[in-house]
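in:
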Protein backbone atom coordinates (compact mmCIF):
# COMPACT_ATOMS: atom_id res chain seq x y z
CA UNK A 1 0.00 0.00 0.00
CA UNK A 2 1.29 3.43 -0.82
CA UNK A 3 2.35 5.87 1.87
CA UNK A 4 2.39 9.57 1.30
CA UNK A 5 4.10 12.37 3.15
CA UNK A 6 2.08 15.10 4.79
CA UNK A 7 1.63 18.37 2.99
CA UNK A 8 3.53 21.09 4.77
CA UNK A 9 4.44 24.75 4.65
CA UNK A 10 8.10 25.51 4.98
CA UNK A 11 9.17 28.73 6.59
CA UNK A 12 12.02 29.60 4.25
CA UNK A 13 13.61 32.74 2.95
CA UNK A 14 13.03 33.53 -0.70
CA UNK A 15 14.37 30.85 -3.02
CA UNK A 16 15.38 32.37 -6.32
CA UNK A 17 14.52 30.17 -9.26
CA UNK A 18 16.83 31.62 -11.83
CA UNK A 19 13.97 31.83 -14.33
CA UNK A 20 13.64 35.60 -14.08
CA UNK A 21 15.06 38.55 -12.15
CA UNK A 22 12.26 38.56 -9.57
CA UNK A 23 10.97 35.02 -9.98
CA UNK A 24 10.81 32.91 -6.86
CA UNK A 25 10.06 29.24 -6.27
CA UNK A 26 6.81 28.81 -4.37
CA UNK A 27 6.26 25.03 -4.55
CA UNK A 28 7.99 21.70 -5.04
CA UNK A 29 6.12 18.70 -6.46
CA UNK A 30 7.56 15.21 -5.96
CA UNK A 31 6.53 12.24 -8.09
CA UNK A 32 7.10 8.51 -7.74
CA UNK A 33 8.89 8.29 -11.10
CA UNK A 34 11.11 10.45 -13.30
CA UNK A 35 9.30 13.33 -15.01
CA UNK A 36 11.89 13.76 -17.78
CA UNK A 37 12.32 12.20 -21.20
CA UNK A 38 14.66 9.25 -21.54
CA UNK A 39 17.29 11.44 -23.25
CA UNK A 40 17.38 13.95 -20.37
CA UNK A 41 20.56 16.00 -20.22
CA UNK A 42 19.82 18.54 -17.51
CA UNK A 43 17.46 20.72 -19.55
CA UNK A 44 14.03 22.00 -18.54
CA UNK A 45 12.76 21.25 -22.04
CA UNK A 46 13.25 17.55 -21.23
CA UNK A 47 10.24 17.60 -18.87
CA UNK A 48 7.64 15.25 -20.31
CA UNK A 49 4.79 17.15 -21.94
CA UNK A 50 2.13 15.19 -20.07
CA UNK A 51 3.27 16.74 -16.77
CA UNK A 52 3.39 20.24 -18.25
CA UNK A 53 -0.08 19.84 -19.77
CA UNK A 54 -1.51 18.46 -16.54
CA UNK A 55 -0.20 21.37 -14.51
CA UNK A 56 -1.42 23.91 -17.06
CA UNK A 57 -4.91 22.46 -16.64
CA UNK A 58 -4.59 23.00 -12.88
CA UNK A 59 -3.42 26.58 -13.44
CA UNK A 60 -6.24 27.27 -15.89
CA UNK A 61 -8.84 26.04 -13.39
CA UNK A 62 -7.32 28.47 -10.86
CA UNK A 63 -7.64 31.37 -13.30
CA UNK A 64 -3.89 31.62 -13.83
CA UNK A 65 -2.44 32.78 -17.15
CA UNK A 66 -0.06 30.22 -18.74
CA UNK A 67 2.93 32.56 -18.51
CA UNK A 68 2.37 33.44 -14.82
CA UNK A 69 3.86 30.21 -13.48
CA UNK A 70 7.10 28.63 -14.67
CA UNK A 71 7.68 24.89 -14.34
CA UNK A 72 11.25 23.70 -14.11
CA UNK A 73 13.59 21.07 -12.73
CA UNK A 74 15.69 21.44 -9.61
CA UNK A 75 19.04 21.78 -11.36
CA UNK A 76 20.90 22.30 -8.10
CA UNK A 77 19.83 18.94 -6.68
CA UNK A 78 19.61 17.17 -10.03
CA UNK A 79 16.35 15.56 -8.92
CA UNK A 80 14.47 14.23 -11.95
CA UNK A 81 11.46 13.13 -9.86
CA UNK A 82 10.59 16.66 -8.70
CA UNK A 83 9.32 19.85 -10.31
CA UNK A 84 9.62 23.40 -9.01
CA UNK A 85 6.97 26.05 -9.60
CA UNK A 86 7.99 29.70 -9.67
CA UNK A 87 6.24 33.02 -10.16
CA UNK A 88 7.09 36.72 -10.17
CA UNK A 89 7.23 38.53 -6.83
CA UNK A 90 5.81 41.70 -8.38
CA UNK A 91 2.98 40.53 -10.60
CA UNK A 92 2.76 36.80 -9.93
CA UNK A 93 -0.16 34.70 -8.77
CA UNK A 94 -2.38 35.55 -5.81
CA UNK A 95 -2.70 33.69 -2.52
CA UNK A 96 -6.16 32.54 -3.59
CA UNK A 97 -4.71 31.07 -6.78
CA UNK A 98 -1.99 29.29 -4.81
CA UNK A 99 -4.68 27.86 -2.55
CA UNK A 100 -6.53 26.60 -5.62
CA UNK A 101 -3.39 24.82 -6.85
CA UNK A 102 -2.87 23.29 -3.40
CA UNK A 103 -6.44 22.05 -3.32
CA UNK A 104 -6.14 20.38 -6.74
CA UNK A 105 -2.86 18.67 -5.84
CA UNK A 106 -4.16 17.56 -2.45
CA UNK A 107 -7.16 15.93 -4.13
CA UNK A 108 -4.87 13.88 -6.38
CA UNK A 109 -2.95 12.54 -3.38
CA UNK A 110 -6.14 11.90 -1.39
CA UNK A 111 -7.78 10.03 -4.28
CA UNK A 112 -4.59 8.05 -4.79
CA UNK A 113 -4.26 6.98 -1.16
CA UNK A 114 -7.97 6.18 -0.86
CA UNK A 115 -7.91 3.67 -3.71
CA UNK A 116 -11.16 2.52 -5.31
CA UNK A 117 -14.27 1.83 -3.26
CA UNK A 118 -16.01 -1.46 -4.00
CA UNK A 119 -19.29 -2.78 -2.59
CA UNK A 120 -20.56 -6.36 -2.73
CA UNK A 121 -24.30 -6.91 -2.31
CA UNK A 122 -25.06 -10.59 -1.72
CA UNK A 123 -28.01 -12.40 -3.28
CA UNK A 124 -28.39 -15.54 -1.13
CA UNK A 125 -31.80 -16.27 -2.64
CA UNK A 126 -30.03 -16.95 -5.96
CA UNK A 127 -27.72 -19.62 -4.53
CA UNK A 128 -27.74 -22.90 -6.43
CA UNK A 129 -26.71 -25.12 -3.52
CA UNK A 130 -29.35 -27.21 -1.75
CA UNK A 131 -27.16 -27.91 1.29
CA UNK A 132 -29.10 -26.65 4.29
CA UNK A 133 -26.15 -25.54 6.46
CA UNK A 134 -24.74 -23.48 3.59
CA UNK A 135 -28.04 -21.71 3.02
CA UNK A 136 -28.48 -21.08 6.74
CA UNK A 137 -25.02 -19.58 7.13
CA UNK A 138 -25.46 -17.44 4.02
CA UNK A 139 -28.72 -16.09 5.44
CA UNK A 140 -26.88 -14.96 8.59
CA UNK A 141 -24.22 -12.99 6.72
CA UNK A 142 -24.40 -9.25 6.22
CA UNK A 143 -25.99 -8.45 2.88
CA UNK A 144 -23.38 -5.79 2.05
CA UNK A 145 -19.60 -5.75 2.31
CA UNK A 146 -17.59 -2.62 1.60
CA UNK A 147 -13.85 -2.38 1.11
CA UNK A 148 -11.23 -0.57 -0.98
CA UNK A 149 -8.90 -1.72 -3.72
CA UNK A 150 -5.36 -0.41 -4.18
CA UNK A 151 -3.50 -1.05 -7.44
CA UNK A 152 -0.64 -3.50 -6.93
CA UNK A 153 0.75 -4.74 -10.27
CA UNK A 154 -0.19 -6.11 -13.67
CA UNK A 155 -0.42 -9.88 -13.98
CA UNK A 156 -0.68 -11.74 -17.27
CA UNK A 157 -2.58 -15.01 -17.16
CA UNK A 158 -2.58 -17.75 -19.77
CA UNK A 159 -5.64 -19.87 -20.44
CA UNK A 160 -4.93 -23.21 -22.08
CA UNK A 161 -6.51 -26.59 -22.76
CA UNK A 162 -4.84 -29.62 -21.18
CA UNK A 163 -5.96 -31.73 -24.13
CA UNK A 164 -4.04 -29.51 -26.53
CA UNK A 165 -0.96 -29.81 -24.34
CA UNK A 166 -1.26 -33.58 -24.39
CA UNK A 167 -1.66 -33.60 -28.18
CA UNK A 168 1.44 -31.43 -28.53
CA UNK A 169 3.34 -33.77 -26.23
CA UNK A 170 2.29 -36.75 -28.32
CA UNK A 171 3.78 -34.97 -31.32
CA UNK A 172 7.05 -34.52 -29.45
CA UNK A 173 6.65 -30.84 -28.58
CA UNK A 174 6.52 -29.25 -25.14
CA UNK A 175 4.99 -26.08 -26.58
CA UNK A 176 1.31 -25.44 -27.24
CA UNK A 177 -1.05 -22.54 -27.92
CA UNK A 178 -3.02 -20.62 -25.34
CA UNK A 179 -4.68 -17.24 -24.81
CA UNK A 180 -3.01 -14.54 -22.75
CA UNK A 181 -5.19 -12.11 -20.85
CA UNK A 182 -4.41 -8.94 -18.92
CA UNK A 183 -5.27 -8.53 -15.25
CA UNK A 184 -4.32 -6.04 -12.56
CA UNK A 185 -3.72 -7.33 -9.03
CA UNK A 186 -5.51 -5.23 -6.40
CA UNK A 187 -4.85 -5.22 -2.66
CA UNK A 188 -8.08 -5.55 -0.65
CA UNK A 189 -8.25 -3.43 2.51
CA UNK A 190 -9.92 -4.31 4.76
CA UNK A 191 -9.88 -8.01 3.84
CA UNK A 192 -13.15 -9.75 3.02
CA UNK A 193 -14.43 -12.86 4.88
CA UNK A 194 -14.51 -14.90 1.68
CA UNK A 195 -11.96 -17.09 -0.10
CA UNK A 196 -12.61 -16.51 -3.79
CA UNK A 197 -14.45 -14.50 -6.40
CA UNK A 198 -15.54 -16.59 -9.36
CA UNK A 199 -17.03 -15.57 -12.68
CA UNK A 200 -20.38 -17.17 -13.46
CA UNK A 201 -20.83 -18.38 -17.03
CA UNK A 202 -23.81 -19.34 -19.13
CA UNK A 203 -23.17 -20.93 -22.52
CA UNK A 204 -19.47 -20.04 -22.05
CA UNK A 205 -20.23 -16.33 -21.64
CA UNK A 206 -19.77 -14.37 -18.37
CA UNK A 207 -23.08 -13.47 -16.75
CA UNK A 208 -22.01 -12.31 -13.29
CA UNK A 209 -19.82 -13.04 -10.28
CA UNK A 210 -20.08 -14.90 -6.99
CA UNK A 211 -18.20 -14.73 -3.70
CA UNK A 212 -17.11 -18.11 -2.36
CA UNK A 213 -17.39 -18.89 1.34
CA UNK A 214 -15.43 -21.91 2.57
CA UNK A 215 -16.29 -24.27 5.42
CA UNK A 216 -13.26 -26.51 5.86
CA UNK A 217 -12.68 -28.35 2.60
CA UNK A 218 -16.12 -27.53 1.23
CA UNK A 219 -17.73 -24.24 0.33
CA UNK A 220 -20.52 -22.50 -1.46
CA UNK A 221 -20.90 -19.66 -3.94
CA UNK A 222 -22.96 -16.56 -3.20
CA UNK A 223 -24.09 -14.58 -6.27
CA UNK A 224 -23.26 -10.91 -5.74
CA UNK A 225 -23.79 -7.52 -7.29
CA UNK A 226 -20.64 -5.39 -7.44
CA UNK A 227 -20.51 -1.60 -7.32
CA UNK A 228 -17.23 0.14 -8.18
CA UNK A 229 -16.26 3.66 -7.15
CA UNK A 230 -15.36 4.70 -10.70
CA UNK A 231 -18.36 4.99 -13.08
CA UNK A 232 -16.34 4.32 -16.24
CA UNK A 233 -15.17 0.99 -14.81
CA UNK A 234 -18.64 0.19 -13.49
CA UNK A 235 -20.03 0.50 -17.02
CA UNK A 236 -17.42 -1.97 -18.29
CA UNK A 237 -18.11 -4.35 -15.42
CA UNK A 238 -21.87 -4.23 -16.06
CA UNK A 239 -21.28 -5.14 -19.72
CA UNK A 240 -18.69 -7.79 -18.73
CA UNK A 241 -15.93 -6.05 -20.68
CA UNK A 242 -13.92 -6.32 -17.46
CA UNK A 243 -14.27 -9.01 -14.81
CA UNK A 244 -13.27 -9.43 -11.17
CA UNK A 245 -11.95 -12.71 -9.80
CA UNK A 246 -9.22 -14.40 -7.78
CA UNK A 247 -8.35 -16.94 -10.47
CA UNK A 248 -4.65 -16.06 -10.74
CA UNK A 249 -4.21 -15.03 -7.10
CA UNK A 250 -5.56 -18.32 -5.80
CA UNK A 251 -3.71 -20.51 -8.28
CA UNK A 252 -0.36 -19.54 -6.73
CA UNK A 253 1.48 -21.77 -4.21
CA UNK A 254 0.13 -21.46 -0.67
CA UNK A 255 -3.22 -20.14 -1.87
CA UNK A 256 -5.26 -22.69 0.10
CA UNK A 257 -3.84 -21.48 3.43
CA UNK A 258 -4.33 -17.82 2.45
CA UNK A 259 -7.96 -18.43 1.54
CA UNK A 260 -8.76 -19.40 5.11
CA UNK A 261 -7.44 -16.05 6.36
CA UNK A 262 -9.78 -13.95 4.24
CA UNK A 263 -9.51 -12.31 0.86
CA UNK A 264 -6.65 -9.80 0.78
CA UNK A 265 -6.11 -9.65 -2.98
CA UNK A 266 -8.18 -9.94 -6.12
CA UNK A 267 -7.62 -9.14 -9.76
CA UNK A 268 -9.47 -7.13 -12.37
CA UNK A 269 -9.36 -8.83 -15.76
CA UNK A 270 -9.12 -6.17 -18.47
CA UNK A 271 -9.22 -8.29 -21.62
CA UNK A 272 -7.44 -10.62 -24.00
CA UNK A 273 -3.88 -10.11 -25.21
CA UNK A 274 -4.28 -12.71 -27.95
CA UNK A 275 -2.83 -16.14 -28.66
CA UNK A 276 0.62 -17.10 -27.38
CA UNK A 277 2.88 -20.14 -27.48
CA UNK A 278 3.62 -21.45 -24.01
CA UNK A 279 5.26 -24.33 -22.21
CA UNK A 280 2.99 -25.51 -19.39
CA UNK A 281 1.74 -21.96 -18.93
CA UNK A 282 5.19 -20.37 -19.13
CA UNK A 283 6.54 -18.13 -21.89
CA UNK A 284 10.04 -16.91 -22.76
CA UNK A 285 11.48 -13.65 -21.42
CA UNK A 286 10.87 -11.64 -24.59
CA UNK A 287 7.21 -12.68 -24.78
CA UNK A 288 6.71 -12.07 -21.06
CA UNK A 289 8.18 -8.55 -21.31
CA UNK A 290 6.00 -7.73 -24.33
CA UNK A 291 2.84 -9.04 -22.67
CA UNK A 292 3.53 -7.10 -19.47
CA UNK A 293 4.01 -3.87 -21.42
CA UNK A 294 0.84 -4.36 -23.46
CA UNK A 295 -1.10 -5.18 -20.30
CA UNK A 296 0.22 -2.07 -18.56
CA UNK A 297 -0.71 0.06 -21.58
CA UNK A 298 -4.21 -1.45 -21.53
CA UNK A 299 -4.59 -0.51 -17.86
CA UNK A 300 -3.25 3.03 -18.39
CA UNK A 301 -5.75 3.57 -21.19
CA UNK A 302 -8.57 2.93 -18.70
CA UNK A 303 -7.37 5.79 -16.47
CA UNK A 304 -7.89 5.83 -12.73
CA UNK A 305 -7.21 4.04 -10.47
CA UNK A 306 -4.57 2.36 -12.65
CA UNK A 307 -2.82 5.63 -13.56
CA UNK A 308 -2.07 6.18 -9.87
CA UNK A 309 0.53 3.40 -10.18
CA UNK A 310 1.33 3.18 -13.90
CA UNK A 311 2.39 5.45 -16.73
CA UNK A 312 3.06 9.18 -16.71
CA UNK A 313 0.56 11.78 -15.52
CA UNK A 314 -0.13 14.06 -12.56
CA UNK A 315 -1.64 10.98 -10.91
CA UNK A 316 1.95 9.94 -10.13
CA UNK A 317 2.23 12.85 -7.68
CA UNK A 318 3.64 11.62 -4.36
CA UNK A 319 3.85 14.75 -2.24
CA UNK A 320 4.17 18.52 -2.50
CA UNK A 321 5.38 21.45 -0.42
CA UNK A 322 4.48 25.12 -0.72
CA UNK A 323 7.17 27.52 0.45
CA UNK A 324 6.27 30.40 2.73
CA UNK A 325 7.30 33.57 0.91
Amino acid sequence: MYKFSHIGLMGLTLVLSGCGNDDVNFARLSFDRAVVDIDYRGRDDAIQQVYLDGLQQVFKAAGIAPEAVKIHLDEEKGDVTSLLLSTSLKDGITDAQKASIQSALKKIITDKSNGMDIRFTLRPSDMETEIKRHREEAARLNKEFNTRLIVKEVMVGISYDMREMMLSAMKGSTWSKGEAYCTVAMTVSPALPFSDIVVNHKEEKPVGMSLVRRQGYSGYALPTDIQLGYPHLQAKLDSHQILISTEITNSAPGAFQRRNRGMKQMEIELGSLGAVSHESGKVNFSTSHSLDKRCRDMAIELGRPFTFAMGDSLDRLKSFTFFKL
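note: Residues 1-19 have pLDDT under 50 and may be disordered.
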